[in-house]
Every structure is written in C-alpha cells, then in structure tokens.
C-alpha cells in the first residue's frame, strides 16, 4: 500500500460524489482497477486494509499496534513501467505483488498517527510503502455510508460509482481500456484523476505514495 494526495472535493477517476473525499478513499492499480481510462469495475468497492509491516524499512519494522481502515475505491493508480501500480497479468509490481492500494492521505477522516514510525531509528517518519492484508467488505462499514452526499456519482459528470457494488454485473462498472474501448465521455485530468482497474485475490498488497508513481 502506498499513499497520495487527493484534495477534498476533487473528482477522481470514478466520478464519485464530491463528499466521498471527506471519508477514507483509495486508488487501485490499473490491472486490479479494471480499466486504463475513466471508471472501471473496481469503482465503489470497499476494502478493509490492515498494516502489517513497512515494506521499505531497513532494518524491518513491525508496528506494536495494528491499524486498519475501511476505504472506498474512487480512483485509478495508472500503470507505469516502474513503480507500485505497474503489475500486469504477466508480472508483478516493484514489491512482487499484483495488487496495490494507494491511500488518499493525509485525510481528515484518518488519524494523523495511522502510519506508525520510529524516526529516532530510521531518521524519517514516513516509510511510504507498507505490506498490508486486505478484505473485500460491504460498504456499510465505510465511514461515509450514512452520509447520502458521500454516495453515488457527481451529477452531470460521466461517472460510475455504485454505493455498494456486488459481484453482479448489474451493479459493477464497465471497463474502459485501449483493448475494450475508451468512453467517449472520459475526462482527461491529472495522473491520479481518471483511471480504472480489475480485481485480483492475493493475501497481501502494497500501498504507494503519489510521489513514487
């Protein structure tokens, strides 16, 4: 897992309601997101993410407390030749994983102490990349669930952000890519603003900072 900056009120790739940014959200790597432009099948899905250890720490760092957060996928972390979001069906990312969550952080909905650190030992407080465990869960457990303004799509914006998507194709967003076709209404914005993915099941994943893309 990594983290990146997503300002409150920013319309990300899925086009989720602006107030969704007031609660924990994350981008997902392109392959898992299921698209290379606009929204994708991962949009709107919720996951419980639990920190395990700091991936880049030397010596290894295992926190004394186990911090978890339930996030809603609202954005794409696009493929690049190097980095944490570059896994494909034939190869893993820089951390030897197929799945990566890019957490929107700092966030008013997540404690500033969410990421443990030991600056006296390492000389810095932000490890940037963490091994995490994850579980796909109902969005009823997401902080924004009881706030209608945080659910659904931005009005008048080509988007797809189900409140609580299931495995049914009836409530899952389509995939847009070079192979599947690009939505004619796709918006072009910053690298983390408009991109999609397809879901894999691994026991761990990585979360990456925006500056490492």
UniProtKB/TrEMBL annotation:
The signal peptide here is none
Task: Give a single Pfam family match.
Answer: EXPB1_D1
| Record domain Expansin-like EG45: where | 11-144
Listed InterPro entries: Expansin/allergen_DPBB_dom, RlpA-like_sf
Q: Look up the domain of life of the source.
A: Eukaryota
State the protein's name.
Expansin-like EG45 domain-containing protein
UniProt source species: Scleroderma citrinum Foug A
